[in-house]
Design a protein that fits this description.
The complex is a heterotrimer of chains A (290), B (163) and C (788). Chain B is α+β, with helices and mostly antiparallel strands and 163 residues long. Chain B is 36% helix and 17% strand. Chain C has 788 residues and is an alpha+beta fold. Classes of the chains: A alpha+beta (290), B alpha+beta (163), C alpha+beta (788). Chains in contact: A-B, A-C, B-C. At the B-C interface, helix 2, helix 3, helix 4 and helix 5 of B face helix 1 and helix 17 of C.
């Protein structure tokens, strides 16, 4: 319940924050919403000699569409994402994702950037960002760089962020016409991590065939899983029930979950299939097909 | 281990304290400021007994550091009653038997209070979703829903009187 | 039933808004962690990561160097005062701190005392313990098998892991009935281990004053007097004397039975305070609470029901293996080590029955009767209500019809069950009929048939339970020898206001309101003018506390009896004031008047004032009475619940579409509070039915040791409960009331389980053990070829 001691820093700008990370190296951790980090510290499961709180740095909380993309400041609270009109109407997959993260009170603190940077495949945004082919922006001692989301997740709790880098922005390409997305999560109760969850973003051609599709799975392996075989299968196809069922089967096959109280490996893989099917159906409906 | 001076408003009143970095906001409120209406019920950020408002939004104060509240405004259950008058959410909980042991109640009321601030006519489902981060073992939630609905009606009456 | 008193007096039957709410809604409840005393120290506990291990060394040097840490207490420390072991409430023995080995994961190993809780936590982290793991026994069947490793090596001459064997009924006659039966159904039901998980955990502040030799312990205790006596018996040899022990149960954030046992943490805190002469606070955190405190259930019940082909039940036979953890620390009445399990014949007129329980020691925490179980009634009702549905499906008979056919009939009450209970009153058909009407049973069966034809899964489950509460009559009931009476003491002040103190202890049941309503009912003093106090052993009359739905049946009765004594005194004073004889007086709530001359009257307030100022010659002044009530029998609340579920064929998720509960708890003191108890009980019935389970892997590692995996339902998972009632008064209770706190926790799980099995019965499914998780259902769907 009570963390070990640590030093706390609240820099008021990015360069100072980065400098602190450089100075303290592996002993420093970035504190954003704290809803993943603080629970770990309270159970003394994680160690941090220094917490660098990026919550006082202005200019990291925003949600706006510009330049053909949705730009989300890394410190944007999940509840703000949930309440955003543009997210709800133009990026329903994101709306559905943020709405099932933890519970509504936790969402008032948890940040989108934190949900990604923590590198936990059980978090909900990673799969959705994969399905959306998003990018993240990181700032470090050598300046700013853009990282494609499919290069971001490296391993369990391990991302492409260097220890001296801070995530500052998430960029989601604005969907073209005839696009739809959905996030379908099976959880034991509100507030739980996914037993299985699937994120689907699809764009259809004027004839109704799949022009672009992203399918990714939450809590289905050490990193969020891109269901590549399912995507390949769907590309160019007109989507009907049989196609959805087959794509979902392939997506389930991409899942390699660990057995735990949420279910056995077999159940979780089958649920990845079922969630994929439901998300596909809804995404395609939203795209105007079917 | 660094020490920090935190200055914040709690229920509109300025407070300050010298605290360890690791001091949790819930302990700052309960142990340092002796506002014991906010409770602790778990160690994994599930139960919500520690819910307070931070700059108007319900947060689980067991998962916020006291230092993170520096310069901010906190509202606790002790701040609901103003000028000796109970807030409609408090009236609702009494009127509709929305509490039994009372332990989850402060957190529930703060979440309910915040819900009504942004949604004046929540449906039953919306109320249930809004309080899904607050656990109760005694009431079975139904009377808590009714308490919030009652408070919504009272607030609307009050608003229409004021108008 | 219309209340007899008006809203001002607010006696029985009024939905009086609760008096205790005033402080809770202001955040001014006074719970144990709110207690702060000058110089108070903090205690935190080092716990074992192993389920079974020898302790080879405990090193405290690093811990003692942590700033703020004052002392580290081990079993060796306590052994000096012979306090390292203590008796349990079931007359077994339990370690306070071990000197040789630990026997369950998270067992207390050492305690750190520090100046603040943060330092205490750092101290716990710094204590070093060396363990030599021992083989772990987790399976109670393996524990009871011949040749199993003997766990209780502390018990000389113990050669097995049997904690006790208990049985009830006539085995031979029952076996004969089974042998001759036309139909026999048999099923194994496992009701797993669960945990109360009240939102407030357990804790205490022990404050020993060396100057006075007095110990005050603020404690989350549902039974403060019993605790005081236990402390005096256990620690008398170190100088604690009962008149110098004061236990104060302040506001308690939920009990449900989990705050009845005397946990090692309390004893260590007391010892620390006595040794250091300072107040010592111990508050466990949630993971400690889940992993070490008293569990509930863990009953493996091989259940058999014999019947005639026409559905008439003939005999019941249950063989139970009970997992008790490493010691029998359940808080059962001493003659009933398996609690009131012999209520298992339930609501049916069974002519033969036999049940037996073998309790096993295993490497798990001790306990057994927490979680609103009415002393094992949840387990018993689960068995009978589930096997009844198994019989119904076997006979292709509607489960409601089968129940109606076998119910004990209203004219059979008081009814003596074959296992020896005298049921006080009941009308089971009326309750079931009302439930079926309100849920629209016939229409639902029609819908079910239509859905089944389309491959959709809808289930309807019924549970018609008989509860048994109010422990209990002195001839049968005691805990550690203390008889289970309870008490009330009422004193009315000159200006007509009263204070009532009772031996029970509310943890949310609304006693400050309901007892006031009883006084109002009997004396006509407005309930708003009656102050109710419980929980301070220095002032409250002796009682056995609140659990097993016993408060209304025992202290509620005592309160009525004491109030009636006062009414009789009032009659004498009124006669004196009005200068008539007592027989000429007529009572209405709050007033005595002269027969035929109603304008000649005295209010209770005038009468009470006279008790201090103008009382008859020879009468003792003052206006005070008490009652220690030894109930003549238990009480038997009952009900019929109907649950409707829809099953998601893709995920196996069970959704409760509707749940209707018809309860009968006799005459009702406060209908609003009764309804609240039912809502809460239903939710604590839903939880074990679908979500909660405390399980262990083969090494004894707890698999649900935090709220991450021990799943409490939120408002989203919890259905919109529908409730109704019938009223069948209790013939032997002064108010005709029965108690209701646990009925819904007893009745809900079988109703839900029956509904799910009902949805799948056409596929050949006969049983699914609770918790009915989505995966359990999905596996069945897959096996039957109907998964999406």
């Amino acid at each position: 319940m009570i963390p070990s001691s640590f030093d706390y820093h609240a820099p008021s700008d990015l360069p100072s924050a980065v400098a602190l990370l450089v100075k303290h190296g592996e002993g420093a951790k970035v504190l954003s919403g704290g809803q993943s980090l603080l629970p770990l510290l309270k159970l003394r499961l994680g160690q941090a000699a220094h917490l660098v709180d990026v919550g006082r740095i202005p200019g990291l909380e925003y949600v706006r569409e510009e330049g053909g993309m949705l730009r989300i400041g890394a410190c944007t609270r999940e509840s703000v994402l949930e309440g955003s009109e543009v997210v709800r109407t133009r990026y329903p997959i994101l709306f559905e994702t943020t709405k099932v993260i933890a519970d509504p009170v936790v969402r008032n603190r948890a940040t989108v950037g934190g949900n990604l940077a923590h590198g936990d495949p059980a978090n909900d945004h990673p799969a959705t960002m994969l399905a959306l082919s998003a990018q993240v922006v990181a700032v470090g001692p050598n300046g700013e760089r853009v990282i494609a989301i499919d290069k971001f997740f490296l391993g369990l709790f391990s991302t492409a962020l260097a220890p001296d880098e801070i995530l500052t922005e998430i960029r989601v390409p604005s969907p073209p016409p005839r696009s739809g997305g959905a996030y379908e999560k099976l959880e034991r109760k509100v507030g739980d991590y996914a037993t299985a969850a699937a994120a689907v973003q699809v764009t259809l051609s004027p004839s109704g065939a799949v022009e672009r599709v992203g399918i990714a799975l939450t809590n289905a392996g050490p990193i969020p899983v891109r269901a590549g075989a399912a995507e390949t299968y769907l590309r160019g196809k007109k989507v009907d029930d049989a196609a959805i069922a087959q794509a979902a089967r392939l997506a389930g096959g991409a899942s390699s979950p660990r057995a735990d109280r949420r279910g056995t490996v077999e159940y979780k893989r089958e649920m990845a299939r079922v969630m994929s099917a439901r998300a596909l159906k809804r995404a395609v409906e939203r795209a105007g097909g079917h | 281990m660094s020490m920090h001076k935190v200055e914040l408003k709690v229920n509109g009143v300025p407070h300050s304290a010298e605290v360890e970095s690791r001091l949790l906001l819930v302990h700052l409120l309960r142990e340092v400021f002796r506002l014991t209406g906010t409770h602790i019920g778990c160690d994994t950020t599930h139960c919500g007994a520690c819910t307070v408002l931070l700059d108007g939004n319900p947060v689980k104060s067991c998962t916020v550091l006291a230092v993170q509240a520096h310069g901010r405004e906190v509202m606790t259950v002790e701040g609901l009653e103003t000028g000796g008058k109970l807030h409609p959410i408090q009236q609702g909980f009494t009127e509709k038997h929305g509490l039994q042991c009372g332990y989850c109640t402060p957190g529930m009321m703060m979440t309910g209070f915040a819900l009504l601030a942004r949604n004046q006519q929540p449906s039953e489902q919306e109320i249930r979703e809004a309080i899904s981060g607050n656990l109760c073992r005694c009431t079975g939630y139904l009377n808590i829903v009714k308490a919030v609905q009652y408070a919504a009606e009272q607030l609307e009456k009050g608003a229409s009187h004021a108008a | 039933m219309q209340p007899r008193t008006d809203a001002k007096i607010c006696g029985m039957g009024h939905a009086m808004r609760r008096k205790e709410d005033a402080r809770f809604i202001r955040g001014q409840g006074h719970y144990i962690d709110d207690v702060q005393l000058p110089g108070m120290l903090f205690l935190d506990i080092v716990r074992s990561p192993f389920a079974h291990a020898k302790i080879t060394a405990i090193r405290t040097e690093r811990a003692l160097k942590v700033p703020g840490v004052l002392a580290v207490i081990t079993g060796e420390t306590l052994a000096k005062y012979n306090l390292h072991w203590m008796p349990t409430l079931s007359a077994d023995t339990q370690m306070v701190l071990p000197t040789e080995k630990v026997m369950y994961q998270s067992q207390e190993v050492a305690a750190v005392i520090a100046t603040d809780r943060y330092a205490a936590a750092d101290g716990v982290d710094a204590v070093e313990v060396d363990y030599e793991p021992l083989p772990v026994l987790i399976d109670p069947f393996k524990a009871l098998a011949p040749g199993a490793q003997v766990l209780r090596t502390d018990k000389k001459d113990k050669k097995d892991n049997l904690a006790f064997h208990w049985e009830a009924g006539n085995r031979a006659a029952t076996d004969r009935a089974f042998a001759e039966a036309e139909v026999v159904v048999k099923e194994d039901f496992y009701v797993p281990r669960i945990h109360v998980a009240s939102i407030e955990t357990c804790g205490c502040v022990a404050d020993f004053s060396p100057a006075e030799g007095k110990l005050t312990v603020y404690m989350t205790s549902q039974a403060p007097h019993a605790v005081r006596t236990v402390f005096a018996l256990v620690a008398g040899h170190v100088g604690l004397s009962e008149e110098k022990i004061r236990v104060i149960s302040p506001d308690i954030g939920g009990g449900f039975g989990g705050k009845v046992p005397v946990y090692p943490g309390y004893v260590i805190a007391v010892a620390a305070s006595v040794v250091l002469g300072k107040p010592v606070k111990w508050i466990e955190d949630r993971m400690e609470n889940l992993q070490a405190d008293s569990f509930a259930r863990d009953y493996h019940m091989r259940t058999e029901l014999a019947a005639k082909r026409d559905g008439t039940m003939v005999a019941l036979r249950i063989r139970t293996v009970a997992d008790h953890g490493y010691t029998n620390a359940s808080a059962n009445p001493s003659k009933f080590p398996a609690g009131l399990f012999s209520i298992c014949t339930g609501s049916y007129d069974l002519k033969q029955a036999f049940c037996e329980v073998d309790a096993a020691y295993t490497n798990k925490p001790p306990g057994g009767v927490a979680y609103r179980c009415s002393f094992r009634v949840t387990e018993a009702v689960h068995a009978i209500e589930r096997i009844t549905d198994v019989l119904a499906h076997e006979l292709r008979m509607d489960p409601a019809e089968l129940r109606m056919k076998n119910f004990i009939r209203p004219e059979q009450f008081p009814y003596r069950s074959v296992l020896g209970w005298e049921y006080d009153s009941g009308n089971y058909p009326a309750a079931l009929r009302l439930a079926m009407d309100k849920i629209g049973y016939a229409a639902l069966r029609k819908e079910q048939a239509e859905k089944q034809a389309r491959g959709e899964l809808l289930g309807i489950g019924i549970c018609s339970f008989t509860e048994i509460v109010g422990g209990g009559p002195s001839k049968d009931f005691d805990i550690l020898g203390l008889k289970m009476f309870d008490s009330a003491e009422i004193r009315v002040h000159p200006t007509g206001k009263a204070i009532a103190r009772l031996g029970t202890k509310s943890q949310g049941q609304g006693h400050e309101t309901t007892y006031a309503q009883i006084v109002a009912e009997e004396l006509g003093i407005p309930a708003a003018h009656v102050q109710v106090e419980e929980g301070d052993t220095d002032t409250a009359p002796y009682g056995l506390g609140t659990y097993a739905s016993r408060s209304t049946p025992t202290s509620g009765a005592a309160c009525a009896v004491a109030a009636r004594k006062l009414r009789e005194k009032a009659r004498k004073i009124a006669a004196h004031l009005l200068e008539v004889s007592e027989e000429d007086l007529v009572w209405e709530p709050g007033k005595f008047s002269v027969k035929g001359a109603p304008q000649k009257a005295k209010t209770i307030q005038e009468i009470v004032f006279a008790a201090y100022t103008n009382y008859p010659k020879g009468m003792e002044p003052g206006f005070e009475a008490s009652s220690y009530y030894d109930p003549p029998n238990l009480t038997f609340p009952f009900g019929s619940y109907v649950c409707v579920v829809d099953i998601d064929r893709g995920t196996g998720t069970v959704k409760v579409r509707r749940f209707l509960a018809v309860d009968d708890c006799g005459n009702i003191i406060n209908p609003m509070i009764v309804e609240g108890q039912i809502h809460g009980g239903l939710t604590q019935g839903l939880a074990p039915a679908l979500f909660e389970e405390m399980s262990y892997d083969e090494n004894g590692n707890n698999q649900a040791g935090s709220f991450m995996d021990y799943l409490l339902p939120t408002a989203v998972e919890t259905p919109h409960w529908e409730t109704d009632k019938t009223v069948t008064p209790c013939p032997h209770h002064p108010l005709g009331a029965k108690g209701v706190g646990e009925s819904a926790t007893v009745g809900a799980p079988p109703a839900i389980a029956n509904a799910v099995v009902d949805a799948l019965a056409h596929l050949g499914v006969r049983n699914i053990d609770i918790p009915i998780t989505p995966e359990k259902v999905w596996r069945i769907l897959k096996e039957k070829g109907v998964a999406e």
